[in-house]
Amino acid sequence: MRKNDIEVREIWSAYAGYFKPRRGLKRLLAARHWDVVRQITDMEIPVVPITSEDMMERLEEVGPVDFILCSGSTVIVRQPVLDAMPERVFNLHPALLPVCRGPKPLQALILNGLANRYGGMTLHLMTRGIDEGEIIGQVAVPLEDKGFEEWRLNISNAGAHLVDTQLMAFLDDKLGSIPQDESIATYYNANETPSALSRDWSVERANHFMEVMLGRVPKVTVRPDFVKHKRLSLVGVPQKIGPVTQQPDKVGFFSVEFNLADCRVKIRRESYWGSLKRRAHRYISFQRIKPAFLP
């Protein structure tokens, strides 16, 4: 695929199975212009399973490339790859670095009340340190009163803008990079930025988490203690109903009861109609906002 003189040779992913074409209702309801799988299929871009250990070998097999761009990747780029392509391995990080380094920046921004001040996208050089490389460009995208989905789409578009402008200027030696300000740097690991409620928490921590997250995202999930349900979608704060018991989770149409670390709680579930409403709102957001990476 070519755009602005960029040819995408391959997409490397630890989850290559994600890129299988959608079928049936999922395909019908997907906004075509945001359907990454469909775009990749239409453009005939090969998707290659990759790990940190075999990345260097794959780089040698694919032939000469001008640069590597990472976005939302869980694969760690090892030092041999960085040494083989000095200042040619880049990363898009969805926060205004050096604030909110780490694997889940969007959750970190919301949970720490930083989404308005530091929401956005950063294009930076990749180094051995996680999200510590010099900055090439940034675009601020505050959350403000936007819905979560709209915010994420706007951040994605900010990344496309950075690739089209700052990255191209950097590759043409028309733009430099600047070191990050370590005096304001923050890092949040995965345990500090949960995206789901944990039954190991106290009711106080669970309450705080739900109140903060539900103010910004439409639902929060919890993994039940049995296999019947993969995840349950929650839309309310925990209500303490008694001490911890030996009873299994009790899943009803409108609520779920389960044990936290210090008590048993009841939380309102997302209803069927609530799920349809959320999905419809998401679909409308995806239809309204056009991706910046398409002409």
How do the helices and strands line up, and which of them pair or pack?
Layout: E1 2-3, E2 6-7, E3 11-13, H1 24-29, H2 36-42, E4 47-49, H3 55-62, E5 68-71, H4 79-84, E6 89-93, H5 105-111, H6 115-118, E7 120-125, E8 135-140, H7 148-171, E9 196-197, H8 203-214, E10 220-222, E11 232-234, E12 239-242, E13 250-251, E14 255-259, E15 264-268, H9 272-288
Parallel strand pairs: 3-4, 5-6, 9-10
Antiparallel strand pairs: 1-2, 6-7, 7-8, 10-11, 12-15, 13-14, 14-15
Structure classification: alpha+beta
- The oligomerization state is single chain
Would you list the SSEs in sequence order as H and E? Answer: EEEHHEHEHEHHEEHEHEEEEEEH
Q: List low-confidence stretches.
A: none
Number of helices: 9
CATH class of one domain: Alpha Beta
Radius of gyration equals: 21 Å
Give the mean pLDDT. Answer: 85
How would you sum up the global shape? Answer: globular
Annotated CATH homologous superfamily of one domain: Formyl transferase, N-terminal domain
- Helix percent reads 25-40%
Q: What's the arrangement of strands in the largest beta sheet?
A: 5-6-7-8
Please summarize the sheet with the most strands: 4 strands, mixed
N/C terminus separation: 13 Å
Secondary structure: number of strands: 15
Proportion in β-strands: 15-25%
- The name of the CATH architecture of one domain is 3-Layer(aba) Sandwich
> What is the CATH topology classification name of one domain?
Rossmann fold
